[in-house]
Write a structure and sequence with these properties.
By secondary structure, the chain is an alpha+beta fold. It has 6 helices and 7 strands; from the N terminus they run αααβαββαβαβββ. The protein folds into 2 domains: about 60 residues; about 140 residues, no CATH class. The longest helix has 22 residues.
Length: about 230
């Protein structure tokens, strides 16, 4: 029963019998039962439990296929949004602050390439962005931003006119941003684990105050296993 409920919302990312069995055991071990009768908040919390276990297995046992299945590139903007911020939130809700860095010195900016300069941030916030330049900080050969990847934090406030102008321009469109559930490291060495992607519309910001206010539109079409 536990396995059945788990697979209702999570197709097993397995390529052989051993990985499939490992996925089944994860569902049983966590005691997670994801089904249509649960609240969105409960489903989101259970999703985070599974993600944390998958991250642990990925790092400690090298089972990277459990956290990074074959997916298309998710074109995104470098704003870190915590999964806890979206837990139980319905589409259309205005969220007071989605600028969710987890570490001192990390306001919530991300860097696709490890370049922490303001010009690099501005380029990533301008037009269609440039998440296609992404480099996985834990695997330099990975350039395809997707669920299960890690993204590097960009430390500092970065409140230049160019950054503000780019954010103001983005208020006119809906944008996709990574949603993280696990953070590791500090400052320029902080990394965020991508749990899924969300679509938001920025409606205001106060960068020195560490605030970006946005309307939550929903989860991105490129998601696999995002909360309902």
């Amino acid at each position: 029963m536990l396995i059945t409920c788990c697979l209702c919302h999570h197709s097993p990312p397995a390529h052989n019998a051993f990985q499939l069995l490992t996925w089944y055991r994860l569902c049983w071990f966590t005691g997670v039962t994801l089904n249509v009768n649960q609240s969105a908040k409960t489903q989101s919390v259970n999703q985070m439990k599974i993600n944390r276990l998958l991250v642990f297995l990925s790092v400690s046992l090298g089972l990277s296929s459990l956290v990074s299945t074959a997916q298309a590139q998710c074109d995104s903007y470098p704003i870190a949004v915590s999964a806890a911020t979206l837990a139980g939130v319905s589409p259309g809700t205005v969220i007071a602050n989605v600028f969710n860095g987890s570490q001192p010195g990390g306001a919530g900016w991300l860097t696709w390439t490890g370049d922490n300069s303001d010009p690099a941030l501005i380029a990533s916030l301008t037009g269609a962005g440039n998440s296609d330049t992404y480099i996985n900080p834990l695997n330099p050969n990975d350039h395809n931003l997707q669920i299960g990847d890690w993204v590097q934090s960009k430390p500092g406030v970065s409140n230049s006119k160019g950054v503000r102008d780019a954010l103001t321009a983005l208020e006119q469109v809906e944008i996709t941003v990574p949603v993280w559930d696990v953070a590791a490291g500090q400052g320029a060495n902080a990394n965020y684990h991508v749990a899924y992607f969300a679509v938001i519309r920025i409606i205001g910001y106060d960068i020195p105050g560490g605030v970006i206010t946005a309307q939550f539109i929903g989860y991105s079409d490129c998601n696999v296993g995002a909360p309902n």
